[in-house]
Specification:
The protein has 314 residues and is mostly beta strands. The protein is built from 5 helices and 20 strands.
């Protein structure tokens, strides 16, 4: 099949690569090596430039999703409630045009009063950023980094969004001892109480891949240990309890937009993806969109499409 003079049927079909083997597109990170004791990585979601951008595995009750940062551009979306003070450039719901690029979406952090941190978006601090707090930081090139604010990650002219939430779960590849020694309430109140609840986290690996982890019945230590075992050198807590943690990978067929109808709600026991497409959803969230110069992806052999792949411009 020709699209803009390119044989997308053969040129952009999604390919699966064994762990450690670099994908055919030169910019992609190597596929991750499977953590010891895990179920092994499985590709999910729509391909980007013919390469699998997402892989998932399970480890000790935690579902991990590995995201290829060389193929994806990240954004922080404000919502009807979080962080307040809008409107902002990216505000829910995901627009029809943006959904053409959408590869994945996942939840953000606690409400501002519970996060013990600040919030920076669209060039201003909605809530003051706090040095030392765990921070998910998006730069103008669309990359997402995680680290301690002010030490591991400073403010620079390229920073476009900062979402802070508690302190780091994992730092320099080591699990924070407080995940086991501190009272579980110090990592957020649980509903209806007790150390286990629905939890989620985001981190980065040594080569810059983004790692998301979540599960329906987890302790803080269990989540932190899985993130470290999955390759995170730094990781932070995101939202927890009830229906807040969520990760969706999208697999639309042909040149069609991402939507709840083609979402893979990857993590068992968590809710569906409708929230990202509703103006009434009251929590902020992250998106991962296709990055690059390709104009299409194959739809043959069950592969999905990645259309209108956009540059990293915020």
């Amino acid at each position: 099949m020709l699209f803009a003079g390119v044989d997308v049927q053969n040129s952009f079909a999604a390919k699966t690569y064994p762990p450690g083997v670099t994908a055919s597109c030169a910019s992609a990170l190597p596929a991750p090596a499977a953590p010891s004791g895990s179920s092994g990585w499985t590709p999910i979601g729509r391909p980007v430039m013919g390469c699998n951008a997402l892989y998932t595995t399970t480890l000790n009750g935690v579902t991990l999703i590995w995201m290829n940062s060389k193929l994806l551009s990240f954004n922080l979306y404000a919502s009807s409630l979080m962080p307040g003070g809008g409107p902002y450039f990216h505000t829910s719901p995901v627009s029809p045009s943006d959904s053409m690029n959408l590869v994945a979406a996942f939840n953000s952090g606690f409400k501002m009063g519970d996060s013990h941190g600040g919030y920076y978006i669209d060039g201003r601090a909605v809530s003051p950023l706090i040095n030392g707090q765990a921070s998910a930081v998006i730069s103008s090139d669309g990359s997402l980094n995680v680290g301690s604010w002010g030490t591991e990650i400073p403010m620079t002219p390229t920073v476009v969004a900062v979402r802070q939430n508690l302190t780091l779960l994992v730092d320099n590849g080591a699990v924070n001892p407080a995940t086991s020694s501190a009272p579980y309430e110090s990592w957020g109140v649980t509903w209806p109480g007790g150390p286990t609840t629905k939890r989620s986290a985001v981190g980065v690996t040594a080569n810059g891949a983004v790692l998301f982890g979540a599960g329906s019945t987890l302790t803080v230590a269990q989540l932190a240990q899985a993130m470290a075992a999955g390759g995170a050198v730094r990781a932070m807590s995101l939202d927890q309890n009830s229906h807040y943690p969520q990760f969706s990978a999208f697999s639309p067929f042909g040149f069609t937009p991402a939507s709840p109808a083609n979402a893979n709600n990857v993590i068992p026991g968590l809710e569906a993806s409708d929230r990202y497409f509703q103006s009434s959803w009251n929590r902020d969230f992250f998106t991962a969109s296709a990055l690059g110069s390709a104009t299409g992806a194959a739809t043959g052999n069950g592969a999905s499409a990645a259309l209108h792949v956009h540059p990293r411009v915020h």
